[in-house]
Amino acid sequence: MERPLSYTTFDPQLIISMKTDKNSVIGFVLLGGLFLLYFWYTGQQQAAVLKIKQQEEDSLAKVAAAKLKVLDTQSARIDSLKRDSAIRTTAAGNFTTAAIGTEQTVAIDNQVMTVVLTNKGAQIKSVTLKKYKDGNENLVVLANKNNISYAINTAQGQSASSESLYFTASSIEKKADSSQVVRFTIDAPNGQNITHEFTVKPDSYLIDWKLLMNGADQLLTNNTINFKWDVATSQLERTAVYERQVSNICFSEDNNFDYISSKQDHTFEKPVQWVSVVQQFFNNTLLAANGFNSGAVKWARATDTSKDLASTSATLQMKVPAASNINIPLQFYIGPSDYNILNKQAPEMDKIINLGRDMYSFVRPINKYIIMNVFNFFAGFITNYGWVVLLLTLFIRLVTAPLTYSSYLSGAKMKALRPELDALKKKLGDDQQGFAMEQMKLFREAGVNPLGGCIPALLQIPIFFALYSFFNSNIALRGQAFLWSKDLSSYDSILNLSFSIPAFGNHISLFTITAVITSFLISIYNMSMTPTQDNPALKYMPYIFPFMLLFIFNSLPSALTWYYTVSNIITLLLQFVIQNYIIDHNKILTKIDQKRKTPKTKSKWQERYEQMMETQKKVQDLKDKTNKNK
C-alpha cells in the first residue's frame, strides 16, 4: 500500500535565519582575508626593514673587518720582520752588525760594460754591455738574475749564508794600469773578517773576484767552501723559442771541454776549471784559478711562452789550505761569445762557441781553420757582412771548382749515353735486374762513373753543416742588416703571419724562397742530364727536396739562406758555361767510342757488383717461373 505524499509547511522565518548565517560566514571569510593580507604586508615591510638593517650592519662589519685586517697584516708584517731580524741576528753570530742593513750598490764602468755590485752578499747585481743591444733595441743586460753565495760558521753551532749578510763597501780605487777595485768587508769583534775584492780591467769583460778570509779555519768546516750559484737567463734575441733551443751549459772538467744540452744535470767527478751558462750569443762564466774539487749542476729550459730561457743551479766545492788566512782567486766572464775574446780567457773556453759538436764535430776544423779565417779576412776590408758572405761563397765555390767540373763532365757523358740507355730500357722492359746489369756494362765500356755527379752534392753536406754552425754562432753577424734582412744572424721576414704553421713558423723568409727556387732549377737541369727513372721515389726526389728546404730553411739565419742562394746561382751559371762553352760533346762521344775499343779490366768491386746483380736476376727469374706455373 502506497504511503500518501506528505507536504512540509513553508516557514519564512527559517528562510531569514538561513540568509543571516550565510552572510555571517561570508563576512568572517572576508575579515579573515583582510587580516591575512595585513599580516602578510606587515611581514614584508618588516622583512625589508630587517634586510636593509642587515645590509647596513654587514657593510659596517666589512669595513671594520678590513680595518682589522690591515691592522692585523701590518702587525703580522712587523712581527714577521722582527722574527726575521731576530733569526738573522742570531744566525749572524759574531757578525751581528752585518745581519741588518740596507742594500747599496756600486757601479764600475770601463769601455765595454757597466758592472753594478751590491753590498748584500757582496756580489754582482748586473752587467750592462755597451756595444750590444737586445731585440728591443735596449742595451744587453746580463747577470741581473745572478746569485752566488757560500755558508760560514758565524759562532758555535751557528751558520749563515753570505747572501744574507750586508757588507761595507769601500770607495772605487783606480790603479796605475787603469783597472778599478772595490772591496766589500764584514768584521767580527774576535778579529775574523771576510773581504770580497772585485777588479774590473779596462776594455775587458772579465771581472776578478778575490775572496779573502781571516779566521778561515773557524769560519769553514773541514777547510771546504761550498759555493751555490744560481743563474736565470732571459730572452735577448729575436725569438725566445730559438734562443732557448741553442742555450746550454758548458764546463771544463779535468781540463776537458764538455757540455749538457738535452740532459738536465751533471755531477762533477773530477776538478772543474770553469762553468758557463750559455745563451745564443752571450755567456755568464764562473772561473776558478785553482779549480773546484767537485760539485754538480742542474738546469732546465723554460717551457712556457715567457721571455725566460732557462734556470741554472750549481753547487761547487773547493778545498782550501788549513790556515787562518786564505786567498781564493775567482773570476767572472760576463759578456759576448766572441771566439777571439774567449780564446784568450781560459783553456777550452773558445769551445763555448758551437762550431761543430758531437756527430758534427768533424766540421769544427773546417770552421776554425778555413771558414773563420777567410770570413775574417774579407770582413777586414768590407764593412757590409752580406757582401762578406757573398765573397766567402765565391771562395768556397772556387776551391771546389775542380770537383764541380769533374761532376759536370760526368753528367755530360751520362747525357751522351742516354739514347743507348733508353734503348736498353725499351728492350728489357720491366726486367730491372737485367737493365741494371746492362747499364753497368755500358758505363764500364764507356768509362763513365755514374756516381761522378754526386760528388758536389756530397761535398755540400759538410760545408752546409759547417756554415750552419758558423752563421748560427758568429756574433759578428748579430744585428747586421743586408738588403731586406734586418739581422743576418736570424731569419729574414717579408711577411709576418697571424698564425703559426707547424715546422714552418709564423713568417715567410724571402731568402728561403730564393734558395728554394734556385734549388728547384738545379733539380730540373740535373733531371735532364740523367737517365729516366722508373722508381717514383728517385724520379720525384729532385722536386721534393726543394720543397723540403722551404720548411728547413725558413727559420734559419738569413746569412745561411743568402749563402745557399748565391751558391745555387753560381751553380746554374757554371752549368750553363761549362756545358755550352767548355765541354765539347763531340769529343766526349769520340772518347767514349775509343774507350769501348780498349781492353777492360774489372775491379773487384765491379766483379762483386755484377755477381750480386746476376744472383738477384736468377732469383727473380725463378720467382717469375714459379708464379707462371701456379
Tags for this entry?
elongated, alpha+beta, 10-stranded antiparallel β-sheet, 15 helices
Your description of this structure?
The chain is of the alpha+beta class and 630 residues long. It has 2 domains: 96-353, Distorted Sandwich (Beta-galactosidase, Chain A, domain 5), CATH 2.70.98.90; 364-598, no CATH class. Helix content is 46%, strand content 25%. The protein has helices spanning 12-92, 216-219, 240-245, 339-342, 364-379, 385-399, 401-416, 418-428, 432-446, 455-473, 510-529, 536-553, 558-582, 585-597, 604-629, and strands at 105-109, 113-118, 123-133, 139-142, 146-155, 158-161, 168-169, 173-174, 180-187, 193-200, 206-214, 224-234, 248-253, 256-260, 265-268, 272-278, 282-292, 294-301, 308-319, 325-336, 495-501, 505-508. The strands form 4 sheets. Strands 7, 8, 9, 10, 11, 13, 14, 16, 17 and 20 form a 10-stranded antiparallel sheet that branches. A hairpin with a 3-residue loop joins β1 (105-109) and β2 (113-118). The radius of gyration is 43 Å and the shape is elongated.
Shape: elongated
Count of helical regions: 15
Overall pLDDT level? 79
Head-to-tail CA distance between termini: 120 Å
Assembly type of the shown chains?
A: single chain
CATH topology of the largest domain: Beta-galactosidase, Chain A, domain 5
Binned, the helix content reads: 40-55%
Topology overview:
Elements lengths: L11 H81 L12 E5 L3 E6 L4 E11 L5 E4 L3 E10 L2 E4 L6 E2 L3 E2 L5 E8 L5 E8 L5 E9 L1 H4 L4 E11 L5 H6 L2 E6 L2 E5 L4 E4 L3 E7 L3 E11 L1 E8 L6 E12 L5 E12 L2 H4 L21 H16 L5 H15 L1 H16 L1 H11 L3 H15 L8 H19 L21 E7 L3 E4 L1 H20 L6 H18 L4 H25 L2 H13 L6 H26 L1
Antiparallel strand pairs: 1-2, 2-3, 3-4, 5-6, 5-12, 7-9, 8-9, 9-10, 10-11, 11-20, 12-19, 13-14, 13-16, 15-18, 16-17, 17-20, 18-19, 21-22
